[in-house]
Amino acid sequence: MKILVCISHVPDTTSKINFTEGDTKFDTNGVQFVINPNDEFGLTRAMWFKEKQAASVTVVNVGGPETEPTLRKALAIGADGAIRVNAHPKDGTFVAKQLAKVMQDGGYDLVIAGRESIDYNGGMVPGMLAALTNSNFVNTCINLEVDGTNAKATREIDGGKETVSTNLPLVIGGQKGLVEESELRIPNMRGIMQARQKPLNVIEPTGDNGATNSVKFEKPAEKGAVKLVSVDNIDELVSLLHNEAKVI
Amino acid sequence: MSVLVYTESDNGQFKKVALEVASYAKAVADALGTSVTALAINANDTSILGNHGVDKVLNVSNEQLKSFNAKAYADVIKQAAEKEEAKVVVVSSSADSKYLAPLLAISLNAGYATNVVEAPASTSPFTVKRTAFTNKAFEMTEMSTDVKLIGVSNNSFGLVENSASASSEEFSPSIPDFKVTIESVDKATDKVTIADAEIVVSGGRGLKGPENWGMIEELADVLGAATACSKPVSDLGWRPHSEHVGQTGKPVASNLYIAIGISGAIQHLAGINASKVKVVINTDPEAPFFKAADYGVVGDAFEVVPTLIQKLKEFKAQNA
């Protein structure tokens, strides 16, 4: 089985979010970048397929040279090779079209992507990739097993979960549950050394355009200070929620 | 041309988000000077859609579509959009809509904007405001494609009354192969879901153990709320994973979020800060949640929550 794991290069959750150039660009100054959490769960599940079912695992990212340390980290965790599509990721449609070409050219059977990135939160790339390559698709996937060309997956639905069966080629939008947080792997020194020798191929983008264009960012208004209510005066809390906040 | 809105139902009843996206579609149609067509799949009574600005309902009754299937539903919506020559298609942010919408976007060649929180700021160029960076920022997005697909963030636009009498028309689309087949569903049917809830009551490690969740459930009952929990609580197995809210759990965008015994780690706040009003109850006045909350009580949950339940019952009795 050939697995492609999509890796988004995103600011760490604790990062300060600021914008530059007249609020049109994300300010990367002082920001630490990490593998998108939803993608890391998927990458770790891919390692399981590698170890138990002899799958090969390639990681891919659409981005500039600055994303290579994130791809190297994925290689250090255990991926066999990496591909970087050398382009600024304009929007979800653009990224999905780049990944569709990578998937088709490489003949991958299974693509594991995260349900959404924690920066732009588009949540559209996995589904678009599936539609573009005529692959089957399971979103918000919390469990995945593959036997030959048959796949069994569990997806989270509003209020519960649902188990489905389908076939390869398959794209999933994965999340926590594919593996648990405690199963995530920190690269060891051996992995880091090996990662330096593994192939990281840079390919040029297709001529496709995006469908949307980010024009400006704004930050939410500063929040006022919390209103404290005394333990002895819970009546006041009820009254504030009813009369002031108007939520009950 | 018209604005097409997919109004979701569950067991024949429209979900609350269906009325919210209908309200949103009406705002878009007004800005474009056109009408709203709703697509309803196996819904019992569509007349309520007229109250929220829908002019015409395309009714699909099909046994094959009894259970949700993303590919089939996306294909049915595409056929409806083409029939109506819709330039704008509106869906919700439910798990099902987020599943089908990317498939729909590719088949319609449409640009797709998710987590949209306001009516379009402009229709030429077509510009919408959406949340990004896990609710730490808003992004203004221009959509340049001929057809635009908009995913409205839950509880962001609200329900708007717009009295109209919606005409109804039977619609019989072709149904594609499913490719993904449901084997089993595990869903609590008697509980308010986090996605649909206007109020969410959430418990953290401060509650000391799963045996103490009775008062969380009672508080949720009084408020008609959904119950949720922090990540440590689901990791410890005190509550099911499906209740975990936060960055790697379910997102919450309720009108009221009550956090009990939750310190407010940044990953937790990232998942819940789309909620409009936040209340924190915690013994530690230094807990980070107090910086994110609108209202707070510094106190022991085991004293505060039973009192709050009592006071809310009295309030409900007076305002019934």
Please trace the helix and strand order of chain A, writing H or E for each element: EEEEEHEHEHEHEEEEHEEEH
The total count of helices of chain A amounts to 6
The count of helical stretches of chain B stands at: 8
Question: Numbering strands along the chain, what is their spatial order in the largest sheet of chain B?
Answer: 7-11-6-1-4-5-12
Looking at CATH, the homologous superfamily of chain A is: HUPs
Radius of gyration of chain A: 21 Å
- Helicity range of the residues of chain A? 25-40%
Tell me the CATH architecture of the largest domain in chain B.
Answer: 3-Layer(aba) Sandwich
Oligomer: heterodimer
Give start-end ranges of low-pLDDT stretches of chain B.
none
Question: What's the architecture of chain A, going by CATH?
Answer: 3-Layer(aba) Sandwich
Q: Could you state the order of secondary-structure elements of chain B as H and E?
A: EEEHEEHEHEEEEEEEEHEHEHEHEH
Can you give me a brief rundown of this structure?
Chain A has 248 residues and is α/β, with parallel strands linked by helices.
